Predict the 3D structure of the following.
Amino acid sequence: MKHLLITFFGILFLSVMPSKAEDGSRLWLRQADNAQAKVNIPRSSPTLNIAAEELQKAWKGLPIDLVLKKDKTLQADGFRISYGKEKVTLTSPTEVGLLYGAYHLLRGQDTQPEARPSAEEAEVHNPAYTLRILNHWDNLDRTVERGYAGRSLWNWEELPQTASPRYEAYARANASIGINGTVLNNVNASPKILTEEYLKKVKALADIFRPYGLRVYLSVNFASPMALDSLPTADPLNKEVIRWWKNKAKEIYRLIPDFGGFLVKANSEGQPGPCDFGRTHADGANMLADVLKPYKGIVMWRAFVYSPSDADRAKQAYLEFEPLDGQFRKNVIIQIKNGPIDFQPREPYSPLFGAMPQTTLMAEFQITQEYLGHSNHLAYLAPMWKEFFEYVSPASLKAIAGVTNIGTDTNWCGHPLAQANWYAFGRLAWNPSLTSEEIADEWLKQTVYKEPLEAILKGKATDVQGWKATHAQLIRLMTESREAVVNYMMPLGLHHIFAWGHHYGPEPWCTIPNARPDWLPSYYHQADKTGLGFDRSAQGSNATGQYPEELAKQWNDLNTCPEKFLLWFHHVPWTHRMKSGQTLWDELCHYYDKGVRQVRDFQQVWDRAEAYIDPQTFSDVQCRLKTQVRDAVWWKDACLLYFQEFSAMPIPYDVERPIHNLKDLQKVHLPINNYVCPSPELLNQNR
Ligand code: BDP
């Protein structure tokens, strides 16, 4: 009795406590948990118990039956929802399919409370890809390559004895958006990950993730047999080497029976690979694939290669991989970055997609904003990935990988709105036909507002019309944000003009003695007295020739090439007339200026939304937008003043005047960590 009373007062106390400012730790899973829904499950199991619990505590609709049943219309992870008069029936051939269905129902409740389907309706949901995978570029010392949200989530030192509660929260968040695989470590892989000591730690994580349908994969170093056991070679055709990998696979699967497989960066940026031993990428990938086959494991072999050679860097992955089409085992997937160079703010798609019809392919997106302002800038990336799908049919791919932006920061991703990119990646990997707006709409409703949507719409504390107008503006802000970054950093097809080392600020002038030419901005922008841009037409490097005929023809001609790719494919005279009628120079100035104006507009949109937004999220984003405007102006001034040295043309008067001098900008790098605002923690203390 005493115990019951304490519980009762405990609950009373909790419910009258003022709600805490949102610190972002709950991501898009902020549902109230006092619903007490009626849920039937076919049996008790770790996965089904989670599904039942999630629904019990948050579902406010009719009773739900979870049914395990084969169904011709459903893939393994798919599910069917039938709405009856008295109950809802959720069916799937698998337990994890039912879990996905549960999260789907809850998402619908949170984002479309007014649109409850009527009785007798049924919905079928299947994922577009069987593999929807996050890639962590996390090192074993807990630094994160290109990570901007704290340290690595994986506390290797404490594992396997101690497991942070965040591991389960991470698995849950992934399951809620359908992500079903995770590569735990950096593609620049330390061989140590395959030692017994580390595999036990990996097992501990895999055990936590399993009920959520999240499989573990590892990046492996191709020379691991040499590094760990002093074999004289890592030649993939060598018997000892093969035996080493076989034993390693056995050891892994004994610990982790559902281990997913390996991700390999080979012969790329100094990583070892089969070519070191006179073998091909196919030899290397197939050896590992054969080793994993008995366990149904897969090899994701990256096509991110560019050797120091005379060939245009944009052509190199194609030159190396296209001739190998048809030579890879069935359980090898070639993992290709969306663009031919490297995760730039805008690239045309990589011509390897579509060029290897006999090979299983997957796309690698970058969720972390290595080249899009790190976690200081707002850049909602769904529009970028949708642009890729305009050229590459989703059905031509087997799987999707995303390099994550997750770290130990309380809000997981650094910038509060950067969580939307993790979310959007998962949603698009499940259903690439969702629009950027739909995903932004869903994500915003579940995260940034003071109140849950249902409460907002009841209008007790909120001006509903005002909220609706604000919400529409925030969707616009999100969906325009990546284009704004393109505009103030690298419009019209410019690329890779970043500062040496950190990929944050501009340094189109950068020269480093003895550096590889293709690591320097001038290699990419090719600015001179006559014009700007890289000639990749048939008269130049002929990278256009790697694309299907129709596109090659269109992109090859300066006059038919889409202007967003113009300077990617052409060296264009400064006085060239653009479609707008302006010269290239004037157009360039206007694009840089537009980018700055867009971010200033985002500031206003955000400030106007203050009444509706959770206060901590509000001030954090407000500060980051100030930093972003500062940086956008820096980019505009640096690029225009530098390129003006070549064009020798005046900056049009309707463009905001530079506030910096080129000489000053050339002396210093744009400061990355000199964030113009105090930290969110400090803001919170001062409130
Ligand atoms: C580049 C990154 C580098 C990665 C490499 C890769 O700058 O840190 O190791 O890609 O994808 O974008 O392997």
About this structure: The pocket of beta-D-glucopyranuronic acid is lined by residues 145-146, 187-188, 265, 269, 304, 342-343, 370 (CB under 6 Å). The CA atoms of residues 544 and 553 lie 8 Å apart.
